[in-house]
Amino acid sequence: MAKTLAILPAAQLAPLAEAYRAAMAVKRRWTIGGLAVLAVCTALSVWAGQVDIVKFWSGLPRFASYFHDILPRLRFETFAADMAEWFWNLDGWLGLLWDTLLVAYVGTLAGAMAGFVLCFLASANLTRSPVVRIFARRSLEFGRTFPEIVFALMFVYAFGFGPMPGVLAIAIHTAGALGKQFSEVVENVDMNPVEGLTASGANYVEAIRFGVVPQVLSNFVSYSLLRFEINVRGATVLGFVGAGGIGKELISSIRQFYYADVSAILVIIIGTVFLIDWLTEMLRHRLLGIEGGAR
C-alpha cells in the first residue's frame, strides 16, 4: 500500500532544524564536559596513586621471569618422573583444597540464607516500614563493606587459626552481597500475585512464600552459584591469614621460595576454579532455561 510523506514548508522546517541543532549542541557540550571531568579525575587518580608507567614497563620482565622460575623443567624422556616430582604432595594438597571448598560452600550457604531473609525486608515493594527497611539495608551494606580478609583477621584473633574464621568471614560478606542482589530482583517482581494473596487473607510470610519466591527462585540460585565460584577463590586467599585451606600452604611455599610447590598448587587451584566455573555455568543455564549448556 503506497504511502505519501508530507514535506513541511521551509518556513516550518527551519525552526525545527534549529531546535534540533541546539539540542545536539547541548548534548555535545555535556559529552565533552563529562569526558573532560573523567580525564581530570583519571589524571588526579594516577597522580595520587603514584602510578609510574616507567616502573610498570621495567617491572614486566621481572614479573614474567617469576613465572618462568616457578615452573619446573619437564623433559620428554622423563616426563612421568618429572610430573611425579612436581606434584609430590598431591594427596596433601588435595586434602587442603577440599578444606577450602568446604569453607567456601558452608560460608556461601550461610550467607545466602541470611541474604534470603534480609532481602525481603530490604525491598521497598514488600516492606512498608522505613525503619525495618533501613535496618535491613544498612545490615547488608555493613556485610559487604569490608573485604573478607578483614573479617577473617578479626575472627582469627577471636577464635584462632582454622576454618571457622574463613567460614564466618565469607558468610558475612556473602550475605551483604547476595542480599543486595536478591532485593533488587524482588523489587522487580510482578506484585499482582502478592496483592491477590493478601486480598484473600494471606499474611506477610505466606504472600512472600507463594507470591514472590516462585518468581525469583531461579535467579536466587543462579546468583548463589556465581557467588560460590567467587568464594572458592576468596577462601584460598583467606588461608594467607590463617583461615585454613590450601591458601596457608601456598603462602608458606611462597615465603620459603619453594618455587615448584608454588606452581603445582597454582595449577591445582586454577584447574579447580575452571571445573567449578564450568559446572556452575551449566547449572545456571539449566535453571534459566538456556539450551546448549556452557559455551
From TrEMBL:
Pfam families: BPD_transp_1 (PF00528). Residues 97-280 form the ABC transmembrane type-1 domain. The keyword Transport applies. Its main location: membrane. It is found in: Cell membrane. Keywords: Cell membrane, Membrane, Transmembrane, Transmembrane helix, Transport. It comes from the Bacteria. It is a multi-pass membrane protein. PROSITE patterns: ABC_TM1. The chain crosses the membrane at residues 29-49, 102-128, 149-172, 257-279. PANTHER family: ABC TRANSPORT SYSTEM PERMEASE PROTEIN P69 (PTHR30043:SF1), PHOSPHONATES TRANSPORT SYSTEM PERMEASE PROTEIN (PTHR30043). Belongs to the binding-protein-dependent transport system permease family. This is Phosphonate ABC transporter, permease protein PhnE. It comes from Reyranella humidisoli. The lineage of its organism: Bacteria, Pseudomonadati, Pseudomonadota, Alphaproteobacteria, Hyphomicrobiales.
